[in-house]
Amino acid sequence: MSAQRASLPIAVFDSGIGGLTVLHELLVSLPAESYLYLGDTAGFPYGTKSLDWLRPRIGRSTRFLLDRGSKLLVVACNSATSAGGDVVREVAQEHGVEVLTVVDPEAEIAAAISESGRVGVLATPTTVQGGAYRRALDAQGRELQVTEVAAPDLAPIIQNGFPFDQRVMDTVRSYCAPLQRADVDTLILGCTHYPLVAPMLQRMLGRDVRLVTAGHAVAAAAQRALETRGLETENDTEGEYRFLCTGRVDAFRELGTRFLQMPLGEVEQVELRP
Amino acid sequence: MSAQRASLPIAVFDSGIGGLTVLHELLVSLPAESYLYLGDTAGFPYGTKSLDWLRPRIGRSTRFLLDRGSKLLVVACNSATSAGGDVVREVAQEHGVEVLTVVDPEAEIAAAISESGRVGVLATPTTVQGGAYRRALDAQGRELQVTEVAAPDLAPIIQNGFPFDQRVMDTVRSYCAPLQRADVDTLILGCTHYPLVAPMLQRMLGRDVRLVTAGHAVAAAAQRALETRGLETENDTEGEYRFLCTGRVDAFRELGTRFLQMPLGEVEQVELRP
Q1: Taking the complete model, does pTM exceed 0.90, yes or no?
Q2: Between 20 and 30 A from A117 (CA), which of A137, A209, B41, B237?
Q3: What is this model's ipTM?
Q4: A166, A190, A213: which is the final residue of a domain?
Q5: Distance from A92 to chain B by nearest Cα, in Å?
Q6: Are residues B8 and B137 in the same domain?
C-alpha cells in the first residue's frame, strides 16, 4: 500500500501560473518525484474575489485535483490559503492526504531574519483582508511592526505576461511607497506570482530589504513530510510532470514554459464540476 | 571637474543582452547613477569567435562607448574580458577611466564558498580557451580542483529568446554531466547570460551546488570605485538609462525589457567605426 502510494505524484494547486515558482523549488529539492499541477486559470485572479465565490471554488478545485490520486497536496497560492485553508484541509482529509500551504513558512522565515523587526507584507486584497499573515506573524513569539500592502493589480500584471511599461512601473512603485515609508528591512512576497518580479521589487526597495518567498521553505517541508510518512518515491530518474488548467491551454503553456524554463509537455484543459 | 565627471554615466559593455544581468545588480546598488549600455549584438556571439576577430572588435566597441563620455567602465562580458581585457584597459587608460571586469570577482567568491574545493566553470569556448578562470582561481591561494566546461550553444540559446524545448534541455543537460561527474559543490556561471537560466541549471545540478554569478560582486566593486575617487553622483532620484546596440533594435528592446523588468526607453542602433 505504502509503496503504491509512494509512486503517486505530489499535487500542487494554484489559481494560475504563480504556483510554478513553488513547483520550481519542489523540482530542485525532489527531482525524482512526479507532480500534478492544477492552475485554476479560468478562476484567476483569486486575490480580488469574494469569499462567497472563492471558498466553494477552492473546494471544487482541490477535490478535482485529489480525485486524480496524489500523496501530498501543496497549496501554492496565498489567496487560496488565506480564504479557504480550512476548506482545503477538509477535502484533503477525506482523501487521506497531508496539506502544505504557504503563509506560515514565510512568516517563520521573516521573523527569523528581520533585524529591525519591521516586516512588510505585499499580497493580494483577499490575502490581506483574510489576516492570515498578521496571525502567522503574531504567532512567531517576537514583537514585530507589520506593514501590509494590498496589491490588486500585481498578480494580474504578471499573469498577463509582463508588459513592463511605465504604467506598470508606476503601479508597482505605488505599492512599494508605504513599505519604504515604514522602513521595513524584510518583505514577504505574499503571493506566489511575486517572485517573478523580484528583480524589479529589489531595485525599487534597494538591496538592504530582504525578500522572503515561500518556495524553498515549502519544498523543505514537503521533503520532511514524505520522509516522515515513508512516501518518498523509489524512482531514481527524473519524475513525470502533468499540468492541468481550467483556462486557455496555449497561454498557460507559453507563460509556464518561460517561467519554469522547461518544456511543459502535455497541458490538459479541465472543467471543474459544479 | 570632479563634480562634472561625477554626473557622467557608468558605461557597461557586453556582446549582447547578458550584461543586463550585471546592469540589474548595478541598478539595485546604485540606483541614482546614470548608465550607458552598449550591446554589440551584431557581433554576438563573442564566445565562439577567433581572437583575431575579437580583439580589434572589442577595442572599437569600448572606444565607441567611452567616446560618449563616462566615469567608469564595467565590462559585463566574460568572453570580452578573457579575450581582450588588456585591449579594454588600454582604451580605458586613454580615456582616463577605471575598468571593472567579471572573472576575478567570481573566482574570489567561488574560492571562498566552496567546501569541497571542487569548483566548476561553465563558460563559452573563448573564455575557457583563454584560461582566465583557471588563472584567477589559481591566484586565490587555495588548492582547488577545477572542472571547466565549454558551452558553445548556451549563450546563443538565451540570446535567441529561450525556446525551452527538449533539444535545449538535452543540450544543457550535456553541459551539466561532466560537472556532476566531477562532483563540484560550486559552479561559476562564467558568462553573463547564464544567470538567466539559473533556475534550469539549479534544477539539473541540485540544490547542493552553489551557483556563483558576477553581478553582485561587480556592483559592490563599482560602488567602492566611485567612493574612492569621489565620483558618486549628486543626483538623489533615479538615474537615466540609455541603451546602444549594433544589431536590431526591436529584438534588443523585447528581450531587454523582459530580462531587466523595466521599459528600456530609447534604444539607439549604432555603427562601430572600422
Answers
A1: no
A2: B237
A3: 0.83
A4: A213
A5: 29
A6: no
Domain boundary among A213, A229, A258: A213
CA distance A163 to chain B (A): 8
Instruction: Measure B54 CA to nearest chain A CA, in Å.
Output: 31
Q: What is the pLDDT tens value at each position of chain B, 274 positions in all?
A: 577 899 999 999 999 999 999 999 999 999 999 999 999 999 999 999 999 999 999 999 999 999 999 999 999 999 999 999 999 999 999 999 999 999 999 999 999 999 999 999 999 999 999 899 999 999 999 999 999 999 999 999 888 876 788 888 999 999 999 999 999 999 999 999 899 889 899 999 999 999 999 898 899 999 999 999 999 999 888 899 999 999 999 989 988 888 888 889 889 999 997 7
> Within 13 Å and on the Cβ side, how many CA atoms surround B125?
9
Residue A197: which of B28, B261, B263 has the nearest Cβ?
B261
Locate the chain A residue with the closest alpha carbon to B168. A262
Cβ contact (<8 Å) for A28 and B202? Answer: yes
Residues A83 and A10 in one domain: yes
* Residue A226 and residue A30 in contact, taking contact as beta carbons nearer than 8 Å: yes
Q: Quick one: closest CA in A to B161, which residue?
A: A258
Q: Are residue B48 and residue B182 in the same domain, yes or no?
A: no
Q: Is residue B140 part of a domain?
A: yes
* Residue A207, domain extent: 103-213
Give the active site residues of A: 77, 191
For residue B191, indicate whether it is catalytic: yes
> From the CB of residue A3, how many other CB atoms can be counted at a distance below 10 Å?
10
Give chain B's radius of gyration (CA, Å): 18
Same domain, A96 and A115: no
Q: How confident is the model at residue A75 (pLDDT cuts 50, 70, 90)?
A: very high
B contacts of A203 (beta carbons < 8 Å) = 24, 27-28, 31, 261-262
Single-letter amino acid code for the residue at A267: V
Check which CATH number belongs to the domain holding A118 and give it: 3.40.50.1860
Do B109 and B97 share a structural domain?
Answer: no
How many structural domains is chain A composed of? 2
Contact B73, B100 (CB under 8 A): yes
Active-site residue, selected from the candidate residues B27, B75, B77, B260: B77
Q: What percent of chain A has pLDDT over 70?
A: 99
| Pair A180, A165 in one domain | yes
